[in-house]
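Table S5 (text form). Sequence records supplied for joint modeling of the two-component complex.
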Amino acid sequence: MIRISIQARQALAKLTLPVLIVATFGLMLLGKADAVLAERARMVLADALAPIYAAIAGPLGIVRGTVATAAGLWDVSTENARLREENEQLRRWQSIALALDAENARLKADLHWVPDPAPSYVTARVVADAGGIYAKAVLLSVGPNHGIRKGEIALDERGLVGRVTEVGARTARVLLITDMNSRVPVVLENSGAHAIVIGTNGPRPRVVYWPEGSMPQEGERVVTSTEASAFPANLPVGAVHYSAAKVPEVVPAAMLDRLEVVRIFDYGLTDIAAPEAPGRLPERRGR
Amino acid sequence: MARADQAPGIRPRVTLGRRLDIAARYAFPAGCTVLLMLLAVAPYGIADQAAMLPAVTFACVYFWSLLRPGAMPPPVVFVVGLLLDLLGYLPLGVGALTLLIVHGLVVHWRPILVRQGFVAAWLTFAGFAAGAAALGWVTTALLMFRLLPVGPVLFEVMLAAALYPALAILFVRVDRTAADPDRA
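The corresponding structure-token record, covering 471 residues in total, follows.
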């Protein structure tokens, strides 16, 4: 160890804090100048932590399930009545859907319809919330040779979840449609009008930029559009709901607050991906 | 070396085991801070869980800067801040800056703060948490160059103030027993 005088050591000790504070400003500049660096550091950390989270997810899931069961016992009879009613309604819808499906198949056969190619997908488990307090995102645990790329589309069993923004060796981060940086081009199903759904970090994103004369209607279904080739057409986003302040919002079809498993679809649409630093080599697929 | 080595008296021989014991007791504040941070981001599936990480980090850094600044020196605070940035998806440097400022102010006002009772320390912590959260909000907004919602920040401050007594009671207990270097 280097021997230094007590005075020098005290002076050095006093200097540490100011020097480190200056270093944080340097770090901020570095983070601004090279966004990829921060992103890579995050994904390395996420790759290291994901197996731990995945391991404790099992016991935590049991605890959560037990709590949910206990809470469910409380209002089991009212819930039962509600489900019975809903079941009746769904049965009616099912018969209509089956009839329409048959009709659709017949019409397609008559028209010699060329079906859309089935997109390839990867199913992944959501291991952690990856948003922090200023973002809405989730972390997925994926296998080592996943082949997931930035800009691919995440869906749960009900609807659109978001897009992949960062990819690590064993993890991928998906920015949810509720995040305030999220912009999804959509079609309002009744009027066929185009609009944009923008995230607000709240539970319900807002509908904006609809054409004049075709106001979004309460309960209207909202699906993605191929505008800007970021999304394929007709993925369910949600239904329009007017907030108390008369602002049209979308109630997301996907269960964004309790995502467990999502599918990452590769539609081959990566025209508008997250911006990358210039000079960076494109990532190779299927390492 | 341990505080005991600077005072005269009879004490056991410094063996490897004892050295490790002393080192572990010195590293306890930093170690438990990092462990609590990792626990705070584990997937519990609670709504608004994201506020837990900064709340726990503020409480740990404030408490140990006040009680044992020697075991929570600026470089450790810097590393904890960096971990907060990475785990909390903040722009790099924001967490480190806020925590270093909290640490600096606590150490500066320590002579006054240590003489206060628990409730005063708690209220001061609430003030510090509010200041740190506000600073984090301003710097993040500047770095992202956009206006951020205020709701999550208010919730973060309230959660920090609510968590502090539980953590402080636990830390005081541990500091007097398992983490005390004089007991090595």
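Note: The CA atoms of residues 153 and 163 of chain A lie 5 Å apart.
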